[in-house]
Design a protein that fits this description.
InterPro entries: 4Fe4S_Fe-S-bd, 4Fe4S_Fe_S_CS, 7Fe_ferredoxin, Fd_C, FdxA, RnfB_subfamily. Its cofactor is [4Fe-4S] cluster; [3Fe-4S] cluster. With 107 residues, this protein is an alpha+beta fold. It has a domain of 68 residues: Alpha-Beta Plaits, CATH 3.30.70.20. The protein has three helices and four strands, in the order E-H-E-E-E-H-H. It is globular, with a radius of gyration of 12 Å. The structure holds iron/sulfur cluster and FE3-S4 cluster (F3S). FE3-S4 cluster binds next to helix 1.
Length: 107
């Protein structure tokens, strides 16, 4: 089991999640974070920390967001590790809650 970062992280990237992860299993792309499924210990600490409510347990990923499970697997292999909180994206407040941000995903 793992936790998964989903659509609403894109273009927000608040990074509060990184601060609480005991095993540093977040990986950072240009406008999105992912969780490495083999490193996540399923502690659930990050889920309530995300202001964008973008993190879900793998078995509770909302309908229509299933593709993010595979996306976390794939991108955690190629993006660098992030272990410290940083400023959110400049237009985070504006993008928070917008639907289908997957179209904005930069790799
Ligand atoms: Fe890290 Fe725990 Fe979140 Fe997994 S569930 S990403 S181990 S904080
Ligand atoms: Fe993204 Fe939420 Fe973390 S917006 S960077 S999953 S705190």
């Amino acid at each position: 089991m793992t936790f998964v970062v989903t659509d609403n992280c894109i273009k927000c990237k608040y990074t509060d999640c990184v601060e609480v992860c005991p095993v540093d299993c977040f990986y950072e792309g240009p406008n999105f974070l992912v969780i490495h499924p083999d490193e996540c210990i399923d502690c659930a600490l990050c889920e309530p920390e995300c202001p964008a409510v973008a993190i879900f347990s793998e078995d509770e990923v909302p309908a229509g967001m299933e593709q993010f499970i595979q996306l976390n697997v794939e991108l955690a292999e190629v993006w660098p590790n992030i272990t410290e909180r940083k400023d959110p994206m400049p237009d985070a407040a504006e993008w928070d809650g917008k639907p289908n941000k997957i179209e904005q995903l930069e790799r």
